[in-house]
Specification:
Layout (H helix, E strand, L loop, with lengths): L1 H23 L6 E3 L2 H13 L6 E5 L19 E3 L3 H6 L4 E5 L4 H9 L3 E5 L5 H14 L3 H18 L11 E4 L5 E3 L4 H8 L3 E2 H4 L5 E3 L2 H4 L6 E5 L5 H9 L8 H4 L3 E4 L1 H4 L6 H11 L5
Parallel strand pairs: 1-2, 1-4, 2-3, 4-5, 6-8, 6-10, 10-11
Antiparallel strand pairs: 7-9
Helix pairs in contact: 5-6, 6-13, 7-13
């Protein structure tokens, strides 16, 4: 009688572990990524697990070096996620990871087709990026790899931190935009620049997110640097271009060529590659600019 009771209790104790083992086999095996940021995060985490075969589709911009940090995408990843929901459904993913800026109807249609859809919501800071990495790591069973990546990011951020503040205060900047909207607080560039020891004048104006800035206000500012999304090899061309702008030409930073040109894929990254942006800004920063 005692032996039978003991075996019953033992079976009950082991049953949860059996279920956990079974649950692990239910991790998504056919993953589709809807944005460059999730492309880069998934590529890194799955590569570390030697499970890149689980990624069956990436965004249509993944092959575009203007936007993507991925050097080479294996031929096995044939799918490209665009606005064509039918094409994505045909790939039969069991998980699609999108971002809050993807069209909502795409998410609704995928869910209607019985596909699990997860949305990354926030892209306002480096902490948001790190939380997104942690979130994706948990979704795909790569928590350990995600934590290792986060540790590497924090180490790189610490290495880029200025050794000491500038005596007259940290240099300031404004990011150039052709559309009279510039990034203020609650943007990744604002956070990345702060890590690099730069002050965003748009933040001091209490502008939030990508906000309009009139040319009348712009000419009253005196940033030490102007940050531009573009080809670093084209600095002189950018300076000539800004010198033709009625407002931007009046800034001393433009007149003296204090421009920080950052490749678009680096300036607008929402993945672990943000550490490259911080390093670029930190390397360009000089006291007394």
């Amino acid at each position: 009688m005692f032996q039978k009771l003991f075996l019953t209790v033992l079976l009950l104790l082991l049953l949860p572990f059996g279920r956990l083992g079974h649950a692990s086999s239910k991790l998504p095996q056919r993953i589709a990524s809807g944005t460059v940021g999730t492309d880069e995060i998934l590529f890194e985490l799955l590569s570390r697990r030697q499970e890149l075969h689980r990624l069956i589709a990436v965004s249509i911009f993944s092959d575009n070096k203007r936007y993507s940090q991925l050097d080479k995408i294996p031929a096995s990843i044939k799918g490209r996620v665009s606005d064509s929901v039918e094409a994505l459904v045909a790939l039969k993913p069991d998980l699609a990871i999108l971002a809050s800026y993807n069209r909502q109807e795409i998410s609704h249609q995928l869910k209607g087709a019985g596909i699990q859809v997860e949305i990354q919501e926030n892209f306002r800071s480096i902490l948001d990026i790190q939380n997104n990495i942690r979130f994706i790591g948990k979704l795909i069973g790569a928590e350990r790899e995600a934590q290792a990546l986060l540790d590497e990011m924090n180490k790189a951020l610490l290495a880029s931190k200025p050794l000491k503040p500038c005596p007259q205060g940290d240099p300031s900047f404004i990011q150039f935009s052709e559309y009279d909207t510039i990034p203020g607080v609650d943007t990744i560039i604002n956070d990345a620049a702060a890590h690099a020891g730069l002050v965003n004048l748009a933040g001091q104006l209490k502008l939030k997110g990508w906000a309009p800035l009139s040319q009348e206000v712009l000419v009253t500012l005196n940033p030490d640097y102007v940050i531009i999304a573009g080809d670093p090899e084209q600095k002189s061309s950018w300076q000539n271009r800004l010198k033709k702008s009625p407002a931007w030409q009046k800034l001393k930073a433009v007149q003296s060529g204090r421009l920080i040109i950052v490749p678009e894929r680096q300036l607008y990254t929402v993945s672990q590659h943000v550490v490259k942006l911080v390093k670029t800004l930190a390397d360009s920063r000089k006291c007394g600019a």
